[in-house]
Amino acid sequence: MSALSPNFFIGNFRIGTVEGASCINMGNNFPVGFESHKKQNQGLGTISGDNNRFDGLKTLLDDSDVMDMLTSGAEKEVPDWIKELIISRLKEQEEEESK
Predict the structure, then answer these.
(1) In this predicted structure, what is the pLDDT of residue 73?
(2) Which residue of 10, 13, 51, 59 sits 20 to 30 Å from the alpha carbon of 95, by its own alpha carbon?
(3) Does the CA dihedral 66-68-71-76 come out positive or negative?
(4) Each residue of 16-49: pLDDT tens digit?
């Protein structure tokens, strides 16, 4: 084998996680058109260590999927039916709050 060989040999390797727009490529590859959409609803954060306690913990998550649709492609025009839906929901909310 020459000193400038394009071949290399790996005995073994371990992959912990692959997430988002990550990929594992071996050989000749030309990946194109990668998109990554990630949604994470987290209210408490990360807990690490031993013997953790959370007494009386209460949480509430209000997840509006309509807003997710609006943010998943800023270059695209929002369809009229979504705009109308948002306007009607906002009007309903205003009416409920004014009672």
Answers:
(1) 57
(2) 59
(3) negative
(4) 777 776 777 777 888 787 777 777 777 676 777 8
User: What distance in Å separates the CA atoms of residue 79 and residue 77, rounded to the nearest whole number?
Assistant: 6
96: enclosing H helix or E strand: helix 80-98
Q: Residue 3 above 70 pLDDT?
A: no
Alpha-carbon span 64 to 68, nearest angstrom: 7
* pTM of the model as a whole: 0.29
Q: Which two tokens stand for residue 94?
A: 């205003």
Query: Among residues 62, 60, 53, 20, which one has the least CA distance to residue 37?
Result: 20
Maximum Cα interatomic distance, the chain, rounded to a whole number of Å: 82
- Which residue do the tokens 């609006």 mark? 70
Instruction: Look at the block and give the residue holding tokens 């953790």.
Output: 52
